[in-house]
Amino acid sequence: TEITEKLEEVVMIWTKQIRQVLAESEQIRREADDVGPSAELEHWKSRMSSFNSLLDEIKSSRVKKIISILQAARSKTLKQWKELDGSITIAANEAKDNVRYLYTLDKFFGPLASASPVTVMEHVPSLMNTVCMIYCTSPYYNTSEHMTSLFLKVTNQMINTCKTYLCQG
Fewest beta carbons within 10 Å, which of 59, 60, 84, 167? Predict the structure, then answer.
């Protein structure tokens, strides 16, 4: 019982830490007003890395041993643990999926940032088709919140490209 109590304390600490990571990941991002679409990809890559590291830790043999001991002891802390494990898995899957879909836009980010306004306009139809494909097929990224954020960043990049072009002339 003493060992079980100590292990439950460890799991409760982990639970608190994981809840904090999940809460931080759900907070509204503060970004500069002129940030471009590559920042969206970087955000999701960073989030994917964080959650994959967390998943690796949760699936480590050390954690599995502690959880199996608590299962044998029929610990009440495992209900919360299983819920968090599921939440982390969902968050990791979302980040991975969003990175995969946003990489399809990556080929547009270079021309969008460095081309002339005329060349940028040539890329817009293909860019919009790709965004439409993401919206129609992505299980996670097809929310108005994500799409608005992406369109805002694409627009910011187009404005910055035009500003740069005008200042060169």
Answer: 167
Count of residues making up the chain: 169
Rounded Cα distance between 94 and 91, Å, is 5
Distances from the Cα of 47 to the Cα of 80, 99, 111, 116, 141, angstroms: 23, 9, 26, 32, 14
Cβ neighbours around 117 below 10 Å, total: 12
> Following DSSP, what letter does each residue of 85-137 receive, concatenated?
HHHHHHHHHHHHHHHHHHHTTHHHHHHHHHS-HHHHHHHHHHHHHHHHHHHHH
Q: Could you tell me the end-to-end alpha-carbon distance of the chain, in angstroms, rounded to an integer? A: 77
Residues of the chain with confidence (pLDDT) below 70: 169
Joined together, the tokens standing for residue 116 give 């002339």
Q: How far is C-alpha 8 from the geometric centre of its chain's CA atoms?
A: 30
CA 147 to chain centre: 14
CB neighbour list of residue 91: distance below 8 Å, 6 or more residues apart: 22, 25, 47, 51
Q: What is the pTM of this model?
A: 0.86
